[in-house]
Amino acid sequence: MLQNYLKTAFRSLLRQKWYAVINIVGLAVCAAAACVVLLYVRNELTYDTHHTGAERTFRALTDMRITQEKTTSSIVSASFAEALQRDFPREIELVQRCSPPVPAVVRAGNVSFAEDWLVSYADSAFLAGFSFPVLYGDAASALALPNSIVLTESLAKKYFGRTNVVGEILSVRMNNQFAGIPQAAMDLHITAVMRDLPSNTSFHFGILIPFAKQEQLLRAKRATMTKEELFTAWYAETFIRFREGVNVVAMKRAVEQYMEKIFLQNKEKVNGNFAEWKKLQHEAFLLQALSDIHLNTSGIEGVLRHNNVHDTHGDSGTNQYSCRNRAGGLVCGLYQLHQFSNSASRHESA
Question: Residues 41, 181: one domain?
Answer without folding.
Answer: no
